[in-house]
Amino acid sequence: MSDGADSAQQAWDSPLLIVAVDAELRQRMFEQLARAGYRVDGVGAGPAAEKRLAKDRYAAIVVASTDRALISGTTIPIVEVDSDLADLAGRVRHAIDLRDDS
User: Fold this and answer.
1) What gap in Å lies between CA 1 and CA 95, rounded to an integer?
2) Long-range pairs, 49-58, Cβ under 8 A, ≥24
3) Tens of pLDDT along 31-89?
4) Predicted structure pTM score
5) Which contiguous run of DSSP H or E holds residue 5?
6) What does each C-alpha distance from 90 to 2, 32, 87 come to in angstroms?
7) Burial class of residue 92 in the structure, from the number of CB atoms within 10 Å of its CB (0-12 exposed, 13-18 middle, 19+ buried)
8) Is the alpha carbon torsion for 36, 38, 40, 45 positive or negative?
């Protein structure tokens, strides 16, 4: 396998981190992404997200648009979402693919 393929596989193997203060929205994102085959961790606040990011490796961060200010200073792809979760899994895959292509 090439290095690009290896990094793409590593990104797929790494979980996603969901950050949303709204517990209902966080749960909906979690369920949708888990159904799409992603491993997912979810947190509700900035300090919890910072702890997770310091401890674990993530393929992407999926964050509620209202909570975007909780995430900063990271090179991990970020996917902002609002209450409309249309094509969330596709948007996450696109963000991971863009990172892998760079």
Assistant:
1) 22
2) 49/17, 49/19, 52/17, 53/17, 56/15, 56/17, 57/14, 58/14, 58/15, 58/16, 58/17
3) 999 999 999 999 998 889 999 999 999 999 999 998 988 888 888 999 999 988 999 99
4) 0.83
5) helix 3-13
6) 24, 11, 5
7) buried
8) negative
